[in-house]
Amino acid sequence: MSLQLNQKVKSEQAGFTLVELIVALAIGLIVSAAALQLFTGGLITAKLQEASAELQDSGVFGVEYVARDIRLANFGNTNNPILNGATQQGGIVFTSGETGNVNLKLKDVDANLLTKSGGTADTNLKSDQLTIQFRAPNKMVNCEGKEVKTGEYVIQRYFLSGSTGGLALTCDANNTGSNDVSIAGLSATDKGVVIMPRVDLLRFYIGAKVGNNFSYYTIDQFNTSTNSPRAISIRMMVLVRSKDPITSKNIDPSKETFGFPDGTVKPTDTKTQYLRRLYTTNIALRNGLGEKVYESSN
Q1: How many Cβ atoms are within 10 Å of 136's Cβ, its own excluded?
Q2: pTM of the prediction?
């Protein structure tokens, strides 16, 4: 009887078989893999949403900030409402010189302070620089955050410059406190104040009317045009990217392209999975308000 009792105790204390352990381990791995996949998917989705919100803030508010200033271009220049490269004190600064019909009638102005192409970019196309001038319509602050009084002369240029974490859309403004035309405070080597971080490309296209036809020109095309077209609007295009890379099968920087009026844009970095967005806005210039235009191309 004692022997039977011992056998019964041993039987009750017996563990799992090897097959049972393997099956349990397999089930545990499957459940863990499913949980890990759900966690990873949720993390990627959260990062995508965060990056999208970041780009939305940068694109919407940054572009509108610049557009607001561009709408002031040529304010106070009541004697010369038609804008082109020969308009004296014209709102868009294409030309300069002490004599002749030029936008900025000052001596020895650095060409790198004028509206131009060929700027730095993180794409296969180069960025543009836009320089505008106007008289302050009221008490305000310039793009560098400095106070400007009513009637003071403001000159500002928008361009891309290097910053920590990539390029950024920046602005450089002349010194405040003068009602006379002055570029004091402007410098081609000044990196300016950051308006939009992490910008791969900045382009400005000049909407101009020739006869009854309206088209958008690159800055180089507008500057070299023989018929001196009248500038009516500006199309601003900004390609921005996220702060951090996003690991997602839907982002392939090696195949990513963006359409611009003068060509297809490809990011220089074809490996890092940044989320990118292209923002475009058309801004009517002061002298173009009320014009009936016929867009014939682009």
Answers
A1: 21
A2: 0.81
